């Protein structure tokens, strides 16, 4: 019996249209392996449109920094799959030549280092991670094993405020501020924008604001993006309410490099005035959402900003949840509950268990991890196989030339606790 020959444009007996539907649904490491099957599959698996489709389908996985006490000079970066509550290794950072902190007199920094190690996550954007390890700042893509060091000096007063994609140019940029001193102006806080891949140095931007109070708040600085990351919505960065901004939501418009305010929900003002609260912003359902956690009552509120472009902000509270769990507080230097864009929350219950709740307060699962060596970051990783010219490629095995301290992992699951 004669068999039909495969049609032109297909691989084996699978039509190209079917292959294009299958490949974007594979995990990143499996899609990379598909490039070695044949020339036709390599052409499809390296097609930019398919790679962007693949990135859009990837889940946003919360990032953890783990400081194993059995290897005190190592720091691990892990991701949590919220569908299974399993951890997987993303990268390991090895302090091959242990160094003291750049600010040895900073008691808070020493405490954080002793508990969490030297690895800090400052931002995540389109599969790229902005990280620091000791005084080195770098951007990397764990899926493609690429990275590059960034020329952001650390004089003990560096604060990274945001990492974002510039809509008009497609460039990736970092917004940070530093304390600077000169004889004419004295001690002043200056804001800089660094464009990744540019040969130009970071630009000192003018603080264009709509009020003197806003300018005074910027002069006092912004909270670090490692703790309170801004949300990119409609091409602008939005920060959660901070004391330096009189409780308002600060907005940075990259096109004009200017700042403005959005008033928070009126019902949230009593919560924001309390000492123990945690407020974060997200992009949810196409608009701005604000999460506010009331520590003493174990209650969370989730507000949505309806009609973002309206003359007056119209906030609607859509969720109010009380978690039935005693939360971990002192002496741990992190918040007792970390929310994520879809409303999921990771809550340390004890010294070895982290609980996973949804936005309605339903317990979805848990995972084991020694809490004293754990940093639950507010950042997530949504993997991408897009290749960037401004990044250097890491070798498959061993340390890379661009930053010998990093070793990318193969994404295998992590079990147990880092003893």
UniProtKB/TrEMBL annotation:
<dbReference type="InterPro" id="IPR017451">
    <property type="entry name" value="F-box-assoc_interact_dom"/>
</dbReference>
<dbReference type="Pfam" id="PF08268">
    <property type="entry name" value="FBA_3"/>
</dbReference>
<dbReference type="InterPro" id="IPR013187">
    <property type="entry name" value="F-box-assoc_dom_typ3"/>
</dbReference>
<protein>
    <recommendedName>
        <fullName>F-box domain-containing protein</fullName>
    </recommendedName>
</protein>
<dbReference type="Pfam" id="PF12937">
    <property type="entry name" value="F-box-like"/>
</dbReference>
<dbReference type="InterPro" id="IPR001810">
    <property type="entry name" value="F-box_dom"/>
</dbReference>
<feature type="domain" description="F-box">
    <location>
        <begin position="8"/>
        <end position="54"/>
    </location>
</feature>
<dbReference type="InterPro" id="IPR050796">
    <property type="entry name" value="SCF_F-box_component"/>
</dbReference>
<dbReference type="InterPro" id="IPR036047">
    <property type="entry name" value="F-box-like_dom_sf"/>
</dbReference>
